[in-house]
Design a protein that fits this description.
The chain has 94 residues and is an all-alpha fold. The chain has a domain of 63 residues. Helix content is 64%, strand content 0%. It contains four helices and no strands. The longest helix is centred in the middle third of the chain and has 22 residues.
Amino acid sequence: MAAAAVGVAVAFIARKDGQVAALLGFAQASLAAAVGFGLNMSAEDQAVLLGFVSVVLGMFERAQITAPVPAGATEPDPIGPVGGVPAEDVALRG
């Protein structure tokens, strides 16, 4: 259990990308420890609980993600169409 807590702490300190995976691992380790110490929970109930935790963490992660946009990506292409000929001139070249 302490190893799972340290793993979560390292994930939060070292890098933001692994937080959801670390929290899900912590939830799995906590549930395994609780069952090991006598919590009476069936395998189906454990799967439902971990599935719920996974969905909640996934929704949180989805809200935090933004797509990186390189500088100038919203500007029009300075070269123009392929071949350098505008589309309306292609019909005139015939």
